[in-house]
Amino acid sequence: MEDQPTSIPGSENPDQLTGLKKGPIMKVAAGIPAVVSSFEKTVQEAGVNRGMKALFNLNKKGGFDCPSCAWPDPDDERSGIAEYCENGARAVAEEATLKKLTPEFFTQHSVIELGKLSDHEIGSKGRIAQPMHLPAGGTHYQPITWNAAFTKIGMELNRLSSPDEAIFYTSGRTSNEAAFLYQLFVREFGTNNLPDCSNMCHESSGVALTESLGIGKGSVKLDDLHQAEVIMILGQNPGTNHPRMLTALQKAKANGAKIISINPLPETGLMGFNNPQKVTGVLGINPALTDLFLQIRINGDHALLQAIELLLWKEERRNPGSVFDQDFIRENTEGYEQFTAHLDTLNVEELAVICGIELAQIEETARLLASKSKIIVCWAMGLTQHKNAVDTIKEVVNLLLLKGSIGKPGAGTCPVRGHSNVQGDRTVGIFEKPSESLLNAIERNFRFSPPRKHGFDVVESIKAMHEGRAKVFFAMGGNFLSATPDTQYTAQALSNCKLTVHVSTKLNRSHLVHGEEALILPCLGRSDADLREGESRFISCENSMGVVQMSKGILPPISDMLLSEPELIVRLAKATLGKKSQINWDRYIADYDVIRADIERTIPGFENYNERVRQPGGFYLPNCNREGKFDTNTQKAQFNVAPVIENKLEEGELMMMTIRSHDQFNTTVYGLNDRYRGIFNERRVVLMNRRDISARHLENGSLVDLYNRFDGVERVARKFVVIEYPIPEGCTATYFPETNVLVPIGSVAEKSNTPTSKMVAITIVKHTNADTQF
């Protein structure tokens, strides 16, 4: 057994406990507590006037797009009170904050000192106010001019022996305009090394949907949820991660929809929702959402779906045409006979054991679905971050195809994206595996030959940096270190670089684990006014359901030394490519309409972009599935046959999944509370079944260390408090990024290469000299 890689200073949250306090698990999400929390955070960070101005314009037509999740806004009228959720308000509050980090701050605090802080403490320091440089051998970041910063980056990039020695990462919040320019620069520079956060979240969805249905996006609109007869929610916690989705579910339920929730944890938002914008919500009247809750074992979804399909198939054979949509299957699909032959080989009792759901509940689910055709299936990371994720999502598609539940109102696929504009970035070209059609369009429009060889995704990029095959890392947003797996391995990879560069609004841990030299380049946020010669400019974003709309910031920037993302990329391109470039980069800064015009002539679906994006609410991009079409090789939807994989654990092992707390969005930690789960003032916790606690001679409150020993390497996360929680036996849950150190770099989903953050085998050992904590 190899030891864990040597710890890189500042790479992990400190293993100091902050004082756990326990409360009851809440039964209903949102309501007055969410309103109070939103208001308090906004006023605390931005003050009353600035904060309220930001919230009033958030997600409004003509306002700015939320920098938090990618849940869509209503197509028709939007709330006059608040078209945002608690998470959105927190994200805007931290972006609109009056706190800023000047050169004096960095003079007073060394990189090592800052690395000893928690992610919450680091992120709450404020906005970065000017470009900062950490010289080789330096201990403190120092101010640097923009010109000097770009010159340094350009020189380092041009010094590489190959463009493929550079990595250009993108987070999900980058605008369409910036993302398009970014990928254009990177490809003219000569590489397709364009990993992005999709590689770590919905890559499995994109692969599965593209192969099965011909498009890597969901097929439903927001109004489809309102028309659905059944909505299935798998591997998703909307109450914390996508709170505005609860309003859509509530409306669907009022219209008669049945909601089936499938999750290892009984998440509060799935069970009940008090809409704070309705009198009934304020009063707590009829908050129930879920009609049927299936508490599945971690990664039991594939087995459950096949068990449901098997029961439906048995009923279809008894009464042909009464359960399956045979006309739809005959006209629109391929592989039905092979798939039903596979179902005939299955045993429903065995599948029930694998997924951990009682047969009676599976039978109830099948009865509920048997007579319905308007079915929507929603999912998130609970499905995508497993080794068999692609096959599981294809099984979702199988179920919908059997029922004819694609290409009609109230039915279809709904992968719920976790970060604003992560879908838009991919649409406009951020992808390490670009299509030939995209590359041909770039060559035709911009008079250079883009590279054809596929680039590195996130996992491949980390390995390349670790092995010295990549030497410059450039991140357009995000907190790469805290978002990625195998923390110590990734930290060493970043440390091996000659130069690491981060375009950011706030300080984060990735700035503190750096290459030989490092730069922080501060940019405007979504809420910041982007002014040029007194005129306010706008950018655009795409939400989870394919709507592209404008986003126009309204707040005075915290500093006059911030650049917009498009301008930053233009200056980067000019400093790197110089006269070698075939592109007139300056014209993009003079007028963002020029960027959108070039997107229009390069990316399908953006016809009349500048005109349509100015329409209130924006416009929908084409989606073949909505039209009942399937852009596969045969123009038919594909059934998939895949055996169920049963999790195999060694004696004493448990299966761990990483989750967010309620005071968290992705890697941004707003506070130390998880209100809905009744966990306060502590993040170093492990949620366990009482039988698993007892079997290990532990107690509720024991202090433990967590180990993963995948591929012969011992990884450890120390000092976690055991919390007894209603989770299936053999399963545990912990917060990321604190336990990302346990997620092996070599454990990835088949085909998508997504890290298996929801499928980590661990052992739990009592911490040396540990006493009960509460």
Structural key phrases:
single chain; 774 residues; alpha/beta; Barwin-like endoglucanases; Rossmann fold; 4 domains; 6-stranded mixed β-sheet; 6-stranded mixed beta barrel; 32 strands; 34% helix
Write up this protein.
The chain contains 31 helices and 32 strands. It is α/β, with parallel strands linked by helices and 774 residues long. It folds into 4 domains: 21-27 and 648-766, Barwin-like endoglucanases, CATH 2.40.40.20; 29-95, no CATH class; 162-198 and 421-575 and 589-622, 3-Layer(aba) Sandwich (Rossmann fold), CATH 3.40.50; 203-415, 3-Layer(aba) Sandwich (Dimethylsulfoxide Reductase, domain 2), CATH 3.40.228.10. The strands form 10 sheets. Strands 6-5-17-16-15-7 form a 6-stranded mixed beta sheet, with helices on both faces. A 6-stranded mixed barrel has the order 24-31-28-30-29-32. The chain has a 5-stranded parallel beta sheet with strand order 11-9-8-13-14. Strand 20 and strand 21 form a beta hairpin. Helix 9 (203-213) packs across helix 21, helix 15 (301-318) runs parallel beside helix 21 and helix 24 (458-466) packs across helix 26 (487-495). The longest helix is centred in the middle third of the chain and has 18 residues, at 301-318. It is globular and about 75 Å long.
